[in-house]
Amino acid sequence: MNQNAEYSAVNDAVHGQFFRRTWAMITPYWRSEEKGRAWLLLAAVIALSLFSVAISVWINHWYKDFYNALEKKDTAAFWQLIGYFCGIATVAILGAVYRLYLTQMLTIRWRAWLTEKHFARWLAHKNYYQLEQGGYTDNPDQRISEDLNSFTTNTLGLGLGLLRNVVSLVSFSVILWGVSGSIEVFGITIPGYMFWCALVYAGVGSWLTHLIGRRLIGLSNQQQRFEADLRFSMVRVRENAESIALYNGEPNENERLKTRFGRVWHNYWDIMKVSKRLTFFTAGYEQIAIVFAFIVAAPRYFAGKIELGELMQINSAFGNVQGNFSWFISAYTDLAAWRATSDRLLSFQQAMTENEQRPAAIEVNADGDRLMVQGLGMNLADGRHLLTDANMIVEPGQRLMLSGRSGSGKSTLLRAMGRLWPAGHGSIRLPAARYLFLPQKPYLPIGTLKAVLSYPQDDSAYTAERYAQVLETCRLPQLVARLDEANHWQRMLSPGEQQRLAFARALLFAPQWLYMDEATSAMDEEDEASLYQALIDELPGLSIVSVGHRSSLKRFHGRHVRIEGGWLQEQSVS
């Protein structure tokens, strides 16, 4: 699935759909609530881009007068034209500065809008979870942070560059056509022959550039993925530093990182080889272009049909026309990078769309006042059955303990209740009441301890006294003085302290239904008993569905269900 999603955009190009899908990714911003300011900025940038073309035309005419003054040794005209050029240069500098400034402003606003939309979509429909579990796409963080940045920058840069080149092409084509005159070849008179020379020269060059450099698109796509994989591997080492250190796993991790970097290395070498061949051609193409116009126009100059100023004007106009025709050549590397970035964003969006449109195999609704599991079957990705036709009812106020062998499906059943398990059939009706899930490894966001305790609510939801009270109740008095301290608490606290912090979060949130998955596995039995008793005492009427192994947990539950051989079996509570 990962490869299919990754290369779907590439296949789309073969079927003529790539540009349609990319256009659908570009246009929403320009129809959004930001459209007024976006179009205003775009109009200003386009105006300044066209103004830069006008400056180039202005300088082209200046060339003619300046070189004619040099040829005639006209000192007064020379200094007058130097002053004239200073004025042109001043205006050109101001235009270039504000064109860049407004382009950057438009780019960051577009990127901000796209990033916010992708954040919202990635976090909706559990996309962030399902895409990771199913392996539908790699490194979504890179696609949102880096690919969107590259996409907006390159789209505007290439789009405005193309527009500027088209306008410049038209302007200088008119000039070149007018000054180049005609030439007779095999008895045929060709008007504006310099224009046709520029067209043929650039056309052949563009075709050869694509033949030489087309592999850069796929290689650029792979390079982005390999670089992101390497960064992710290094983040994994940081996140699991203690475990790696205790295992003395440094040699193993070193090999893993070297393997990841080896992919970066080899792919980059392939990019270097293609780029070398492409640069050989483009550099030669550009060097020949410097003298090509002189070679073609020289016969008319030596025949006395044009003056030096006109020759220089022809050379300038030819250079601009040839350069505009050759836009594809000069922009090829950027086009390849833009195509690779677009492919990655399109495959990312396609993966989210497929997840959003995938029908829920297990129907989960929240209504009524009790938990009902009806005809529930759950499967693993390899087709193995975990549960078969499971039925269960949990009444309000009941405390149910789920047990079973490792891998029997206890945690998976809780995931299904949390709408996280896609494979199976049947239905689950959750109570329409305030609920909270406590996983075995609680999530502790980076921030103040108050923010950690109140998650997913804002830290202003409770008073400082209440925060201190739940910490005392959950046997974490040493943290009371650190409530306003911002830190990476998941690294600072032991697994047992993290689980006690999760219980403190539950006491703050005060749910009516609490679903716990091995939520006390890192605690000793004394802490476990104290915290369970705190839940019972402080949250009267609390309904609990708890996954656990320890026999010491049974006394806190009035009901015990065991998963055995894919079936739910009621157990006696002793």
UniProtKB/TrEMBL annotation:
Q: Which SMART domains match?
A: AAA (SM00382)
Span-the-membrane segments of this chain are 38-59, 79-101, 166-187, 193-213, 278-302
Provide the protein's localization: Cell membrane
Q: Which GO terms describe its molecular function?
A: ABC-type transporter activity; ATP binding; ATP hydrolysis activity
Upper lineage: Bacteria, Pseudomonadati, Pseudomonadota, Gammaproteobacteria, Pseudomonadales
Q: How does it sit in the membrane?
A: Multi-pass membrane protein
Please report the stretch or stretches of sequence annotated as the ABC transporter domain.
371-573
Protein's UniProt name: ABC transporter ATP-binding protein
Q: Which InterPro entries match?
A: AAA+_ATPase (IPR003593), ABC1_TM_dom (IPR011527), ABC1_TM_sf (IPR036640), ABC_transporter-like_ATP-bd (IPR003439), ABC_transporter-like_CS (IPR017871), ABC_transporter_sub-D (IPR050835), P-loop_NTPase (IPR027417)
Name the PROSITE patterns for this protein. Answer: ABC_TM1F (PS50929), ABC_TRANSPORTER_1 (PS00211), ABC_TRANSPORTER_2 (PS50893)
Report which residue ranges the record marks as coiled coil.
none
Task: Please give the organism.
Answer: Pseudomonas trivialis
A GO cellular component entry from the record: plasma membrane
Keywords of the record: ATP-binding, Membrane, Nucleotide-binding, Transmembrane, Transmembrane helix, Transport
Keyword Nucleotide-binding attributed: yes
Q: Name one Pfam family in it.
A: ABC_tran
Main location, first listed in the record? membrane
Q: Where is the ABC transmembrane type-1 domain?
A: 39-337
